[in-house]
Amino acid sequence: MARALRSVPAILGCVTVAIFMLLAVCADVLSPYSTNEPSCGVYAPPSPQHPLGCDDGGIDVLSLVLIGGRISMIAGFSAAAIAVAVGTLVGIVAGYAGGWVDTFLMRITDYFIVIPQIVLMIVIAAVWGSSLVHVILVIGLLMWTSAARIVRAQVAALRQRAYVRRAEATGANAGHVVLHHVLPQLGPLLVATSVIAITVAIFNETALAFLGLSDPTAITWGTIMQHAFQRNAISTGAWWAIVPAGVAVAVLITGCYLMGNALEDALNPRLRSSHLALRSWRFRAPGPQSEQAAMSPREGTQS
């Protein structure tokens, strides 16, 4: 594990995520100007006083990116927590119960996988209403499928272990076996799954906010880019109003992805060549074909 975490990609990922988390915690202190009051001219270009320039309302872009990053990360972390929790519950029930319960839950999971998730998120968020809470719930409740399949396969394998068989033979009920013998073994898998899920959740939250489906009054990286795009920042040459937020999203997602892959390799090296590989969380373009293409060949044949 130590060797895997000492690799250059792992170090870069951990450092990147740590820096962004530190910036999010200290955003109020580090923001040079208020995000509620103008501090410069409309679309003022970058200057020593405003390193990232100003938006159409005369608000310092650096302050917006710092404050927006905190809310974007909270939204991404919350959505990922919901997705992993739901996926873990479904995976444990399906993998441990087996039989028709397993078949029923996995068919439901397959239906959700086939449906392009980002399209379904857009439809539900548009109907439900523009709210940051709605966006978090929509992402979390639609993004659980990969976690469910990974956990289900792992639980099905764990149930064949001798110590689980012995516990069942001694009369332990299913709840006791799951809590004391199965769930603890899923810890490393869930840690790596959560990191990768955060990556996808932040991307989805930014995409929905950019499309105007999140709370327009909440400052996130997505709403910063959406406001700038709507107010002709690109056509007026004010690239600084939209590019910094986009770069921040890209850098954080890359950092999370590198850290997630390193954790995956460190916590369970066997998953690198297994159909359980967490890289099935990779970004997928909408469409059933892309969903299938994102999976490894072995995953497709063994599920």
Keywords:
303 residues; mainly alpha; 0% strand; elongated
Commentary on this structure:
By secondary structure, the protein is mainly α. Helices cover 68% and strands 0% of the residues. It contains 15 helices and no strands. The chain has helices spanning 2-5, 8-25, 27-30, 61-97, 99-114, 117-128, 132-142, 145-158, 162-169, 174-182, 187-210, 221-230, 243-267, 288-294, 297-302. The longest helix has 37 residues, at 61-97. It is elongated. The two termini are 28 Å apart.
Give me a quick take on this structure:
The chain is an all-alpha fold.
Beta strand %: under 5%
Q: Portion of residues in helices? A: 55-70%
Give the CA-based shape: elongated
Unreliable residue runs: 273-278, 281-303
- Give the CA-CA distance, first to last residue: 28 Å
Number of helices: 15
Taking all Cα atoms into account, the compactness measure Rg is: 22 Å
DSSP strand tally: 0
Secondary-structure element string: HHHHHHHHHHHHHHH
Report on the biggest sheet.
none
Write the layout of secondary structure elements.
Elements (H helix, E strand, L loop, with lengths): L1 H4 L2 H18 L1 H4 L30 H37 L1 H16 L2 H12 L3 H11 L2 H14 L3 H8 L4 H9 L4 H24 L10 H10 L12 H25 L20 H7 L2 H6 L1
Helix pairs in contact: 2-4, 2-13, 4-5, 4-7, 4-8, 4-11, 4-12, 4-13, 5-8, 6-7, 7-11, 9-10, 11-12, 11-13, 12-13
